[in-house]
Amino acid sequence: SGHEPPANIRGKRLLMRVVAGSLKGRTLHSPRGRDTRPTQDRVREALFSVLGHVQGALVLDLFAGSGALAIEALSRGASSATLVDSSPQAIAAIRRNLDALEVGAEVRHQTAEAFLTRARREHRQYDLVFVDPPYSRASGLRDRLSAALPAVLAPHARVIVESDSRSPLALELALGFERRYGDTLIRIYDG
């Protein structure tokens, strides 16, 4: 998930691990190329400790990258996940991770906006929505995501946004939690 790795790791494949749950310790692969910045294991661990119980949750991972956030949720008992990304490299990495872990999930190769439009028409709703767009595009997505997300949020849903603390993505939803981890800003919105 996310984009723009630091200069010292651009072009390298990063190895991550599932932090907890039934898949704890299993390796995840990040997409090839310069565009993806996976959520660090320590940030994922901190985020899920804040989220607490995710068992039975229906998960949507927009800008999914490696799929690490949705896979972490599935490992911790979420009942299903839909992973969306517009990058062919990200889709390949997601499928590789799901296949290696023998985990079933819906994978959609399309933009977040196109997926949300279709999900609204199909009356889909999610309990947990991860939003981790490319840092350079994050602030420009505010209005479109703020307008599109409410229609796909189940009652008591939470939207988790990861962005650069210097250029944060601020959605027009009720902010329930905010914390910085280095240059990463995590915000949890109540749907």
Q: What does this protein look like?
A:
The chain is of the alpha/beta class and 191 residues long. 28% of the residues lie in helices and 28% in strands. The strands form two sheets. It has a seven-stranded mixed beta sheet, with helices on one face. Residues 1-12 have low confidence and may be disordered.
Summary of the model, kept short:
28% of the residues lie in helices and 28% in strands. The protein contains six helices and nine strands. β4, α3 and β5 (106-109) form a beta-alpha-beta unit.
Biggest sheet statistics: 7 strands, mixed
The proportion of residues forming helix, as a percent range, comes to: 25-40%
Provide the β-strand percentage band: 25-35%
N-to-C series of helices and strands: EEHEHEHEHEHHEEE
Oligomeric state of the chains present here = single chain
Computed over alpha carbons, the radius of gyration is 15 Å
Q: Give, in spatial order, the strands making up the sheet with the most strands.
A: 5-4-3-6-7-9-8
By secondary-structure content and strand pairing, the structural class works out as alpha/beta
Note the overall shape.
globular
Unreliable segments of 5+ consecutive residues: 1-12
Q: Average the pLDDT over all residues and give the rounded result.
A: 88
Work out the number of β strands: 9
Measured distance between first and last alpha carbons: 21 Å
Work out the helix count.
6
Keywords:
6 helices, seven-stranded mixed β-sheet, two-stranded antiparallel ribbon, 191 residues, alpha/beta, disordered N terminus
